[in-house]
Write a structure and sequence with these properties.
With 264 residues, this protein is an alpha/beta fold. It starts with 8 loop residues before the first strand and ends with a helix. The chain contains eleven helices and eight strands. The protein is globular and about 60 Å long. Strands 3-4-2-5-1-6-7-8 form an eight-stranded mixed beta sheet, with helices on both faces. Helix content is 38%, strand content 17%. β3 (101-102) and β4 form a beta hairpin. α1 crosses α11 (248-263) and α3 (69-76) crosses α5 (125-135). The longest helix is centred in the C-terminal third of the chain and has 16 residues, at 175-190. The chain has one domain: P-loop containing nucleotide triphosphate hydrolases (Rossmann fold, 3-Layer(aba) Sandwich), CATH 3.40.50.300. The structure holds adenosine-5'-triphosphate and magnesium ion. Magnesium ion (MG) binds next to α1.
């Protein structure tokens, strides 16, 4: 098994549905890459919209890892019902070199895909493989790994907690999204994720930040505000032109990247 490098950056991006997780993941990927980091963006959402957000053509066919039957069999074994014993902690350090898709300078994309019965603790080979990749994110060769997750809490499984050291919790300024953010903060602490940053996204110009801070309370030691930027909607799904045009949201995300690099 390859060495785990503790100075590498492993970030899980989570938060309530629709708050901007995928958009921020893609913007972060581009901004880290601009700093010279080699970035792996992992799409952990079965909806699989990170590719288009990173600027890949929407019609580009991508086989998700969960559908790579040969790889799963090679790593996990035959699985139940086929007579074989499963390998529960395979060496998946080669996964990005084999299946990572170039997604811009210094950026690769890995699409996990959906696993039926995920979250029910099933021991199917697909789930076992995906969990192993997440748990062993530390051995992947990339400087920065960003994991985009679906809405909700279920991705805070043990595998993510073992492989990722920073939870970027995304919210907007609404009571409901902030409530989910606080719950995620609690879960992150409980499962041992070392660091947490709250990113309050889509903050409208003229918002009273002090008032917003009071609404957030004092549960988050680090908070970043990301402006609502019409540029994002104008160019969606891709963040490429948002970066190229230097839209206002980019400066905020660059600030977030500087914060994260300073934490190492
Ligand atoms: N800072 C921003 N300014 C303006 N629009 C934004 C901003 N961030 C995200 N958006 C828009 O908000 C919508 C939701 O964003 P996104 O898909 O990234 O959210 P999500 O949290 O990944 O959603 P889901 O939970 O469905 O995966 C998109 O239309 C996106 O373009
Ligand atoms: Mg998303």
């Amino acid at each position: 098994m390859a060495a785990v490098y503790h100075d590498r950056i492993r970030i899980v991006i989570t938060g309530k549905g629709g708050v901007g997780k995928t958009t921020l993941t893609a913007l972060l990927a581009r901004c880290f890459a601009q700093q010279g980091c080699h970035v792996l963006a992992v799409d952990g959402d079965p909806q699989q919209n990170l590719a288009a957000t990173l600027g890949l053509p929407p019609d580009q066919a991508i086989t998700p890892l969960a559908d790579r039957k040969n790889y799963i069999e090679e790593k996990i074994g035959a699985g139940p019902g086929r007579g074989g014993l499963m390998v529960l902690n395979p060496d998946t350090a080669d996964v990005v070199d084999r299946f990572g898709i170039p997604a811009g300078e210094n950026i690769r994309l890995l699409v996990m895909g959906g696993v039926r019965n995920a979250g029910t603790g099933c021991l199917c080979p697909e789930y076992t493989l995906l969990a192993a990749v997440l748990r062993n994110a530390g051995v992947l060769p990339d400087d920065v790994v960003l994991l985009d997750t679906p809405a909700g809490l279920e991705h805070f499984g043990r595998a993510v907690a073992q492989g990722f050291t920073l939870a970027l919790i995304v919210s907007d300024g609404s009571f409901n999204a902030l409530s989910v953010a606080k719950e995620l903060r609690r879960l992150a602490r409980e499962c041992g994720i070392r660091d947490v940053i709250l990113a309050v996204n889509r903050v409208e110009q003229g918002t009273d930040r002090q008032e917003l801070r009071e609404k957030i309370g004092n549960e988050f030691p680090a908070i970043r505000f990301i402006p609502a930027d019409p540029c994002v909607g104008r160019h969606e799904p891709s963040v490429g032109p948002v970066i190229d045009e230097g839209c206002p949201v980019v400066e905020a995300v660059q600030g977030l990247v500087r914060d994260i690099l300073a934490r190492r």
